[in-house]
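Working notes for the structural subgroup meeting. M.R. asked for a predicted model of this chain before we commit to crystallization trials. I am recording the input and output together here so anyone reviewing the notebook later can reproduce the run.

Input as submitted:
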Amino acid sequence: MVKDQVLAKDWISVAYSQDIGTEPVPVTVLEERIVLFRTQEGVQAFKDLCIHRGAALSLGKVVDDCIVCPYHGWKYDTEGKCVKIPQQPAEQTIPPKAKAIVYPCVERYGVIWVKLEEGALENETAVPFYEEYEDSSFRTVHAEPYVLHAAAPRVVENFLDASHLAFVHDGLLGDSAFPEIPDYSVNWKENRYVSDEIPVYADADGSGNYATIYYTFEILRPMTARLKKVNYSNNQILSMLFTVLPHDERKTTVFALVTRNYALDQPDEYFRDFQKRVIEQDAGIVESQKPEELPLDLQAELHLKADRVSIAYRRWLGELGVTYGSDVTGVKKR
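Returned structure, recorded in token form:
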């Protein structure tokens, strides 16, 4: 049973495209078991359940672009319709109710996105837009998926926090001798929250080259955000699409796309390893936070001007009515 009807109607990242072939892959999304598999029509997402006797379809196989249940061999096409029941004569009509549950599923930016329920969230247009992925002057690396034992909103908020760079990532991204964050604003723009450019003394990519880097944060969806870092002294840009998969209220997988307009001939493995080092440093902090749920009552914790992006994120989750992984005590929903 999906606990959060808001997130169930949003596009949730569930895997990288490169990791899904014709072998069924089980994934848990918001405590719902689904199965992913690839056909000639593209990637399919089904409830990981055969309606006959409840076996996991992910234990089966894909034959002729259909998924076959491992228990009794029932065969389902891409629309979820059962097209073969081996236990009855081939000419016998298959009951219309013999149908698997199929979820909306799309591939974009090398990521597979799934909705558990039809319908759209407020202000939703489609899968969050990431312009650099289509820009030939940029190169994108898909960072290794990383599992954190923490609530998804806590994980997303950590990504949106510029203040921790000087301490959690001292010597890799930030410098503890330069912790100050200048005042800035966060504004609603074209169905998302966007911060002003925030000047931070930082190292954009762990290369050891510190400078004033201008950070822009964008809150695209409840589980998806974007960061753009610009070094105006050399016009180098490093952008990230950061999106998470909430398996349950205490387990989250991070998918991060790291995109750059420089060092295009440098091995991608450097940037993949760099992102892994960053999230490994974040993991211990995020997993230690109490309460485990992200407080949406703005009176529950202290805030600074430097926290404006986090404040906007918490306020928006409350307005949307997101409860999964969030502490909504004292929050009035619309």
